[in-house]
Amino acid sequence: MGHLHTGSCLCGAAKFELDGEFKKFFLCHCSRCRKTSGSAHCANLFAPGATIKWLSGEDKLSYYHLEGSHFARTFCSVCGSNVPTDAKARSLVVVPAGCLDTDVDITAQAHIFTGSKGNWDEGLDKVPSFEGMPT
Ligand SMILES: [Zn+2]
Ligand SMILES: [Zn+2]
Q1: Separation of 103 CA from ligand 2 center, angstroms?
Q2: Averaged confidence pLDDT in the chain
Q3: How far from the centroid of its chain's Cα atoms is residue 25's Cα?
Q4: Where are the domains of the chain?
Q5: pTM value?
């Protein structure tokens, strides 16, 4: 313990403090993650035994659990941002890396479920990059 991380949603309603260590960091390309993120993959940090304290906006949070699976998402009902899910039954907090305002102290360890990735999710590292919107 003693590792304090903070994060928030886009609209700022939901703010949290997480006390714990990130043990795993996976980029998940499964269809569930693609649906909920609207993107190629989710970037999920796993913090076993961590505790989360909502500094604000806990009443604005919505929770979705996909029946018959471990898949669950917590998100801000105002702006839709994914925020951490406290999987109490598994004493694990799953943190979407993008909602953190503090630096992440581990690097992504693996792309997972690439067997169900989108057909456009191929060679994306070779696509031209721009620091902002291209003109
Ligand atoms: Zn929000
Ligand atoms: Zn997934």
Answers
A1: 23
A2: 96
A3: 10
A4: 4-115
A5: 0.93
Say what the alpha-carbon torsion angle 117, 121, 126, 128 is, to the nearest 10 degrees: -150
Separation between Cα atoms, residue 21 and residue 5, nearest integer Å: 9
Give the confidence band of 2 by pLDDT, cuts at 50, 70, 90: low
Query: What is the 31 CA–ligand 2 centroid distance (Å)?
Result: 7
How far apart, in whole angstroms, are the C-alpha atoms of residue 82 and residue 74? 6
Fold of the CATH domain 4-115: 2.170.150
Any idea which ligand is nearest the CA of 11? 1
Q: Identify the burial level of 15 via C-beta atoms within 10 angstroms of its C-beta, where 0-12 means exposed, 13-18 middle and 19 or more buried.
A: middle
Round to whole Å and give the CA distance between 68 and 76.
23
Q: Which residue has the tokens 């604005």?
A: 60
The pLDDT value given to residue 113: 97
- The residue written with tokens 């890396």 in the block is 97
